[in-house]
Amino acid sequence: MIIRYAENTDYVWLKKHDEHISDEILKAKIAAKEIYVVQEENELIGWLRYNMFWDSIPFMSMLVLLEKYRRNGMGTELVQYWENDMREKGYRNVLTSTQSDEEAQHFYRKMGYTEIGGFKYLQESFEIIFHKNMDL
Fold first, then answer.
1. N- or C-end of the chain: fewer Cβ atoms within 10 A?
2. Buried b vs exposed e over 34-73: b needs ≥16 C-beta within 10 Å?
3. Do 111 and 76 meet the contact criterion of CB atoms below 8 Å apart?
4. Which helix (H) or strand (E) holds 109?
5. What ranges do the domains of the chain cover?
6. Which pTM was predicted?
7. What is the 3-state secondary structure of 28-92?
């Protein structure tokens, strides 16, 4: 498994698999190195993208592995890779979120994230906000 920053050559694959982002923002995030991709035997199998909450706290906004690659530790490795990169860049705290009806909340708790609040947006399920202190 290889984890690396997304490159322009990954755009078509990311656009095909990530329906939650516009073309312009996807291109900007690739250029800003705010997307990581996971490769297995030269095939892309997942990605993680983030943005900056309040322009100062890294917020993991998307973590996806293709179905057949889930539940085998790759997601954990990808999040740890991102956390280490954020730590190296000098950040002491990171955030993420997931809906209350999704299994991901259990994954983040196992990874050391703590629930710090949430909100209800329109007809969506309750969104749980998670925090992790990188000093621990």
1. C
2. bbbbbeeeeebbbbbbbbebeeeebbbbebbbeeebeeee
3. yes
4. helix 104-110
5. 2-133
6. 0.93
7. HHHHCCCEEEEEECCEEEEEEEEEEECCCEEEEEEEEECHHHCCCCHHHHHHHHHHHHHHHCCCC
For domain 2-133, the question of CATH label 3.40.630.30 is answered with yes
The residue type found at 2 is I
What's the gap between Cα 43 and its chain centre?
A: 19
What is the sign, positive or negative, of the torsion defined by CA atoms of 98, 11, 7, 27?
negative
Cα gap 17→47, rounded to integer Å: 10
What residues of the chain score a pLDDT lower than 50?
none
Query: What is the rounded CA–CA span in Å between residue 115 and residue 117?
Result: 6
